[in-house]
């Protein structure tokens, strides 16, 4: 099983786990790192930084497909749905794909704390560029936000894990609280940026995302001392030469800059749908290659190899889950805009408001999940990580089953009621709480120390692959209008069920051990 302790209550290592837990909680209560809801003070800094970054990211992202598919007379770009969703998929894939080099940069050059700051500044600039009403600056802004998010996203999550000592029973709960910040931020983004974008002007919404990110940068600058040594320095081996990595970084940055400028001045163009497919293939090749490297060439010990096996299983489970989940910002978002009755008391609310349901539900349910995992842990009944992942996949499948009925209602009556989307988002949210914070925690606990930042990047690479795959799926969902949706969603349901079953039985073959400093 994936627990660091044997499940047999009669074994010498598992006997007295309740007493061990009580001693740990007693030590924690006496320590000085219980400032924020019983958690380290640095969690406040990371909580607020992530909240503002997610406000800007999701607020802007919620507008992307709607903006690109609206006619020019409505202030949009007048792209067809498959093309817009392909661009959406490329953007989402790029954001998370860049988490891999972002983790490497923190590990080898700047450390996680400085890398987070640099990423936040680049994101802020990108959102202000998006606020400029010009097509080319729109794509330039997307590139900047992608690069900045790749620097910030994996490393802020890594710092969360480093706030806790090895074996600290609060870590899963800490990640769940941290996950609340993501959803509070996204809720603000959908409400503020969504309203301004749909009701005032698309670029007003993009500009509001920049203002939110500015608050995030300032907050991080003024309070980052609370992080202490967590993520402050690179994870370099004594024999590694930092200057070599700095040269690689400099030359790569120059090459990326020249590529961006050449595209901006029109020296090259691409077909979005073809590029989306190529992006998915590229990310898949990178992921497989990296895991092959870890298994055969990284010089890992037997326990570390077992951990990598588990993280590989979680990787593919997360890909399928997020490919389904990401339909919320693409196909389901367009379904909400064009095929859902959005009138409430005579007022037509923005379609992006429906996306508030997911983060709001996370904020409501996350504390209960955090407390529930701790309660089960005290009794040594906490489900294994793959079991939580499997439950997340099953809940996601139920959500897609609900929306199939909603699509059929829309085809019969021209518009579907909002209840179909709300119930779908409820099941997707419950699945998300079983999978996402647990996945972050597992990556922090089970990754080899010298590859910790890169493995957090690999975790987000699963989201990158999922985003690219989601773009392909969303394009297919509108090939023949909404009539294409039921069959496609049924295929997703079957795939989720199969993966969930495989995750349930996988713990018979793989065992993982928490990696501690000094191992």
Description:
This protein is mostly helical. 73% of the residues lie in helices and 2% in strands. It is built from 17 helices and three strands. It has helices at residues 17-30, 42-69, 81-97, 99-110, 112-130, 135-162, 171-200, 202-223, 242-264, 272-296, 302-325, 331-339, 357-378, 385-413, 418-446, 452-477, 485-506; strands at 343-344, 347-348, 479-482. A two-stranded antiparallel sheet has the order 1-2. The longest helix is centred in the middle third of the chain and has 30 residues, at 171-200. The radius of gyration is 22 Å and the shape is globular. The relative contact order is 0.15.
Please describe the topology of this protein:
Elements: H1 17-30, H2 42-69, H3 81-97, H4 99-110, H5 112-130, H6 135-162, H7 171-200, H8 202-223, H9 242-264, H10 272-296, H11 302-325, H12 331-339, E1 343-344, E2 347-348, H13 357-378, H14 385-413, H15 418-446, H16 452-477, E3 479-482, H17 485-506
Antiparallel strand pairs: 1-2
Helix pairs in contact: 2-3, 2-6, 2-7, 2-8, 3-6, 3-10, 3-16, 4-5, 4-6, 4-16, 5-6, 5-8, 6-15, 6-16, 7-8, 7-13, 7-15, 10-16, 11-14, 11-15, 11-16, 11-17, 13-15, 14-15, 14-17, 15-16
């Amino acid at each position: 099983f994936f627990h660091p302790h044997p499940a047999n209550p009669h074994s010498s290592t598992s006997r007295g786990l309740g007493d061990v837990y009580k001693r740990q909680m007693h030590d924690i209560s006496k320590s000085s790192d219980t400032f924020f809801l019983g958690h380290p003070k640095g969690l406040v800094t990371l909580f607020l930084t992530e909240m503002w970054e997610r406000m800007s990211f999701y607020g802007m992202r919620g507008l992307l497909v709607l903006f690109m598919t609206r006619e020019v007379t409505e202030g949009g770009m007048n792209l067809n749905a498959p093309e817009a969703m392909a661009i959406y998929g490329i953007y989402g894939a790029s954001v998370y794909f860049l988490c891999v080099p972002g983790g490497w940069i923190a590990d080898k050059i700047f450390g996680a704390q400085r890398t987070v700051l640099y990423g936040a500044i680049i994101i802020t600039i990108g959102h202000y560029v998006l606020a400029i009403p010009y097509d080319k600056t729109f794509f330039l802004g997307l590139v900047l936000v992608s690069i900045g998010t790749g620097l910030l996203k994996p490393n802020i999550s890594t710092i969360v894990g480093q706030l806790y000592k090895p074996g600290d029973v609060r870590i899963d709960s800490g990640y769940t609280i941290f996950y609340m910040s993501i959803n509070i931020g996204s809720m603000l983004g959908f409400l503020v940026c969504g309203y301004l974008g749909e009701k005032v002007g698309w670029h007003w919404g993009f500009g509001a995302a920049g203002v939110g990110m500015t608050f995030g940068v300032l907050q991080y600058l003024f309070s980052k001392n609370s992080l202490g040594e967590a993520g402050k320095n690179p994870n370099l081996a004594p024999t590694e030469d930092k200057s070599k990595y700095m040269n690689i970084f400099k030359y790569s940055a120059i090459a990326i800059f020249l590529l961006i400028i050449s595209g901006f001045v029109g020296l090259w163009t691409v077909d979005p749908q073809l590029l989306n497919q190529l992006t998915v293939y590229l990310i898949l090749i990178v992921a497989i290659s990296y895991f092959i490297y870890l298994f055969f060439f990284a010089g890992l010990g037997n326990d570390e190899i077992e951990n990598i096996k588990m993280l590989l299983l979680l990787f593919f489970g997360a890909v399928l889950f997020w490919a389904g989940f990401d339909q919320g910002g693409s196909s389901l978002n367009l379904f909400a805009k064009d095929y859902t009755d959005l009138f409430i008391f005579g007022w037509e609310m923005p379609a992006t408001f429906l996306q508030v349901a997911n983060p709001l539900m996370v904020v409501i349910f996350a504390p209960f999940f955090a407390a529930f995992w701790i309660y089960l842990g005290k009794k040594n009944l906490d489900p294994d990580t793959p079991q939580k992942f499997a439950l997340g996949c099953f809940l996601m499948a139920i959500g897609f089953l609900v929306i199939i009925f909603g699509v059929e209602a829309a085809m019969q009556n021209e518009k579907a009621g909002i209840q179909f989307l709300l119930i779908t988002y409820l099941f997707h949210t419950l699945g998300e709480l079983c999978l996402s914070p647990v996945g972050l925690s597992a990556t922090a606990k089970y990754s080899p120390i010298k590859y910790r930042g890169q493995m957090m990047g690999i975790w987000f690479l699963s989201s990158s692959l999922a985003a690219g795959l989601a773009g392909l799926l969303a394009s297919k969902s509108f090939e023949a209008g909404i009539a294409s949706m039921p069959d496609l969603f049924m295929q997703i349901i079957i795939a989720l069920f199969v993966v969930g079953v495989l995750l349930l039985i996988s713990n018979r073959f793989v065992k993982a051990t928490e990696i501690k400093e000094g191992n």
